[in-house]
Amino acid sequence: MKITQISVFIENKSGRLFEICDLLGKNNLNIRALSLADTSDFGILRLIVNDPEKAFTLLKQKGFTVGKTEVIAVEVPDVPGGLASVLNVLSANDVNVEYMYAFVEKSSDFAVMIFRFDEVDRALDALEKNGIKTIEGVRIYGI
Amino acid sequence: MIWNEEFETLPREALEALQFKRLKTTLERVYATVPFYKKKFDEVGFHPDKLKQLSDLKYVPFTTKQDLRDNYPFGLFAVPRDQVVRVHASSGTTGKPTVVGYTRRDISTWAELMARTFTAAGVKKGDILQNAYGYGLFTGGLGAHYGAEMIGATVIPISGGNSKRQVMLMKDFGSNAISCTPSYALSLYEAALEEGINVKELPLRVGIFGAEPWTNEMRREIEEKWGIDAIDIYGLSEVIGPGVSFECIEAKSGLHINEDHFLVEVIDPDTGEPLPYGEKGEIVFTSLTKEALPVIRYRTRDISRIIKEPCICGRTFVRMEKVTGRTDDMLIIRGVNLFPSQIESILIETKGVLPHYQIIVDRVNNLDQLEVLVEVSEEFFSDEIKVLQNLEHTIEKNIKDLIGITCKVRLVEPKTLERSEGKAKRVIDKRKL
After folding, report:
1. Using a CB-CB distance cutoff of 8 angstroms, which residues of chain B are in contact with residue A98?
2. Into how many domains does chain A fold?
3. Which CATH number does the domain housing residue A65 bear?
């Protein structure tokens, strides 16, 4: 299942991350997972929130450069070698991972990882055929 | 010292008679051979026969850089192409450069003008000249090279860059003179210090500096640090290249214009009306001897003033003050001409839309630095770092390839670049000139 990730361009200046989180909080938007990628000049904040459409519109209104990307939330067995087994499937099917990050909360015996693929459908297909579960948006936004 | 005593000290009356004769010939020639000039002259009802005195030149239309671009590449040449033995070019706004051409005689005229320039700076036969102007399409390197060879100096054609090697050869070869941009002279000084060279012990005596505007404060700094005389020279490729005008070491006050080859006017940049000598205005040149690419009333966009009082060196040529500004938005970065519109067209081509941008010029460790800030709009944004970094590198590479300047591109958040009265402020020049 594809879910929507919000990405925001931020310059490496103090206080920017706070401003975004504060803005989301004051508008009742809950951050479910996030990752920050950065270079010496700028960073990209990637967010999974409970209401991506609302967050997208809000950030845009406030003058941020915002993007929407389809990502996949994957259930990874919470045991040693769990992530490796998922990556092995992807690798065997020649699916390239652009980036990934972990979800803070667990769903039962599984950890949840967010994956960004260049070929989402092929990735989904490979995971499904190998019995690896992906989590649908509604559930993710509400975890 | 004077290279060509006969012409450089010609009494004004004889000089003006020579100018008139040469001007008339030039006007007749371009009218007959360059369709662009014939059309332009006809449009205002001017015919070369109507030129009765030098001041009648004011009836002739101006030529601009845009005219050179519109006639890219060889459209303004006044001789058949097989008479052109060399072309040079400067960078252009749309990736197309401004092209200039030289016949064999133009090359030798140019060499003579640079021989005059070096001689006025005290460079003579037997001196070792380190020529650190860039060689290639840029006129600086080869222009200086031919002039220095003509006077019999030993030329080191080292071109620009590689400061470590520059100072090593300067010490090992014992260079007496150096030609480069003034800012590069200061950055070479730093390189010499880093290499543990005591510059005061070097036989270097004089520097011939040009291709970018600089101040008398900068002259003092260079002279003190290096313990040399620093001489200003001026030129632009459209007119011939370096060697249009030069300072003499005796006065170091104003640049003597080679008036037997170029007719100078000062005009009001807004009305185009000629101004009397002594008043500040835009400098306009007309070729008097150029064969391949004569320019008629070429607007330099450089602001200066003409000094007609005689100089202590004995030359009768008028002098122009150091250039103090421009009438357009052209920037000179490390000797390379840059218009903000060039950056603009590169940015548009990158993604098909024009982002808000700002050009920041600074002088760090005596070297011009160019930084281009680009606001990241949705068209430019990506959730992947590598995409954004590629974007920065692509813009940097295009600027390097098309304009020839190494720069740093930095992506910034929307609405962070300064706008004055809603209008974007495109250029911030932090250099103190």
Report:
1. 384
2. 2
3. 3.30.2130.10
ipTM score: 0.86
Q: Which of B17-26, B277-286, B378-387 has the lowest mean pLDDT?
A: B378-387
Contact A11 B415 (CB under 8 A): no
CA distances from B154 to B130, B181, B251 (A): 8, 20, 26
B303 and B385 share a domain? no
The count of other CB atoms within 10 Å of the CB of residue B5 is 11
- The Cα of B388 is separated from the nearest Cα of chain A by a number of Å equal to 9
CA B39, CA B118: separation in Å to the nearest integer?
A: 40
Using a CB-CB cut-off of 8 Å, the residues of chain B touching A38 are: 385
Average pLDDT over residues A77-86: 91
Which residue, among A80, A73, A81, has the nearest Cα to A33 in the 3D structure?
A73
Contact B304, B324 (CB under 8 A): yes
Question: What Å distances lie between residue B334 and B134, B195, B387, B431, CA to CA?
Answer: 10, 23, 30, 12
Over residues B384-405, the pLDDT tens digits come to 999 999 999 999 999 998 888 9
| The amino acid at A127 | L
The CATH number linked to B414 is 3.30.300.30
What is the H or E stretch that residue B279 is in? none
pLDDT of residue A108 exceeding 80: no
The residues with which B246 forms a beta bridge, in sequence order, are B233, B256
Dihedrals phi, psi of B331, to nearest 5 degrees:
-110, 150
Does B421 score more than 60 pLDDT? no
User: Residues B153, B218: one domain?
Assistant: yes
Q: Residue B356 is which amino acid?
A: H
Q: What is the pLDDT of residues A28-57, one digit of tens each?
A: 999 989 999 988 889 999 999 999 999 999
Same domain? For A6 and A57 the reply is yes
Q: Tell me which residue range forms the domain holding A119.
A: 70-142
